[in-house]
User: Fold these one by one.
Assistant:
Number 1:
Amino acid sequence: YTAKAGRNSTVIFDEAALARRLEQNQLSLALVLAADRNEFVVHYQPKVDLTTGTHLGFEALVRWQHPQLGLLPPGRFLPLMEGTQLIRGMTRAVVATVGRDLKAWRAAGLAPGPVSINLPEVLLVGEEGYALFAAAVRENGLEWQDFAVEITEDVFLNRSADQILATVARFRQHGLSISLDDFGTGFASLVHLRDFPFDELKIDRSFVDGIGKDARSEQIIRAMIQLAQNLGKRCVAEGIETEGQRRFLMEAGCDVGQGYHFARPQPAALAGARLPQRAAADRRPASKASVAL
Ligand code: C2E
Ligand code: MG
Ligand code: MG
Ligand code: MG
């Protein structure tokens, strides 16, 4: 409907937009309390060898268990956290949860492989990100290599690469591997590819989607895999949903894949149930690892 605002101007109220705005405001309010109330939940999606299907590791994906609305995907709440400090508390909760889950899996003799954490820009500058991992490693008797980090190209948008470089170099010194996530969709230039020390390139789902449908996506994927290979990086394709996509990527030389075709992100208990047992030689006591620190 319309309402008179002043003598000559008419303001048009879009009721749907208003309702959406109110809902967002309510969500934002609840989000402030979510970390303290332990409402963040971590789901795990496997990374597998594209040729053999062997389990290689997990990616940790956050969800919010909202008291009324149920389990919300990150797309519903991460945008609301932008420019706030809330993302710090959430990341803290995610890393702590992953640390505890890793400890439990190890104690059960399972081999989860490294768990990748999606790290926001704010934790790539200064001490905080480093301290988060150090605490999780120490408190759970883990090693740095039990974790990995995924960063999106967007981190290069606001920060100079130098600021992030210091943190990333320190992570890598401890044996933590770094992935460049959603490659080809953001703000990384070839200069970043040249100068930035990372271990893994993740091909974005939007390209994988085009396999079998769109020759350009296929050509770009081939070029990205070549680029990764030439730079000596591991290549991971995300969002693989079909056997055709898996085969295309494998034949194009991609090493690792992730997607519904292999497994959806699942809670720790379900994800753990599919894990291989650790080889006997690799069964170190949980506390021994922390001595190395
Ligand atoms: P991402 O890091 O690129 O994660 C991959 C997304 O693709 C996940 O969505 C995953 O559930 C989804 N996915 C995986 N396989 C398939 C598939 O075969 N088909 C389709 N259609 N989707 C698939 P999700 O869990 O909704 O996460 C969305 C984004 O939110 C993530 O994208 C990541 O950027 C961000 N995110 C998730 N967890 C965290 C977190 O703990 N911290 C931060 N800072 N960001 C996170
Ligand atoms: Mg990711
Ligand atoms: Mg990704
Ligand atoms: Mg993505």
Number 2:
Amino acid sequence: RAKDNGRGSVCTFTADMNLNVVERMQLLSRARQAFDRQSFTLHYQPQVATADGRVRGFEALVRWTDSELGPVSPDRFIPVCEDSGLIVPLGLWVLETACIEAVGLGCRGAGDVTMSVNMSAVQLAQHDFVPRVLEILARTGLPPHRLELEITESQMIGSLDAAIGKLNALRQAGVHIALDDFGTGYSSLTYLRTLPINTLKLDKAFINDVHRRPDARSMVLSISRIAHDLSRSVVAEGVEELAQWEALSLMGCDLIQGYFVSRPLPADRIDAFLAAWEERRARLPVARDDVV
Ligand code: C2E
Ligand code: MG
Ligand code: MG
Ligand code: MG
């Protein structure tokens, strides 16, 4: 049920409803312990250019395997971390770790790849959010244009002006902003116009039928046209098949992210992925010059 409603506050609410008070307290206490013991990790999922298949960046996704509970999905523990405030230090750790990884990748020959990092509404609402982000960039040495912060529309509700002010400040410093999960929950074309975003991420729900159903195709085609008219780039999430890639390419989507290219990877497997991908890419029958 929570999944159907998309992410953000609705999702948080339903996720909370699914866990009883005891379960929530248990999850939070395990998460606090995991944070103190530094047992959260990050996985990285590549984003490739639709036109030529080259790797342009990665999205950092937090992972946690508890010794008793086993692997816990971020869809389950992020809402608990948000409600308790643990997301603030956890989010700073995620950001710093992802920036360090991006710098390392560049040094190892991956080029100017970008790093996308998910931001929670609770983080964005912190009064020192902007200086904290800038401080981490300065400390890690990642050029601001190589960082992309992912936010969702539901995070804007309630404090739109404050959020826009902060996002503008970050954009002025060169940081990129992406609107995540577009097409679920509260998606509105107004946000596409008014939020200072560089990138629109089309949710997997939009992508699922894009190669099979004309109505899904028209939606993606129209949204990507609007996005391009507004000078936003378009990323398709949850691409699992070559046929989806081909359809998205014809519809002008700029980047592809999904299991078709790779599942999210632990840091120590990125270099092997990059090498293997170059070989696979050369054999892919993807559109190159006939992009709309
Ligand atoms: P998201 O930011 O929309 O991330 C995309 C999710 O889709 C990830 O799930 C990813 O593993 C999954 N995915 C990617 N490609 C495919 C595909 O081809 N097929 C399918 N079925 N799934 C695919 P994950 O890692 O479980 O993360 C879930 C959500 O948790 C994320 O959604 C994001 O909203 C949140 N999250 C993850 N890491 C962080 C974090 O560091 N901070 C915050 N605040 N939220 C995070
Ligand atoms: Mg994301
Ligand atoms: Mg998403
Ligand atoms: Mg999502």
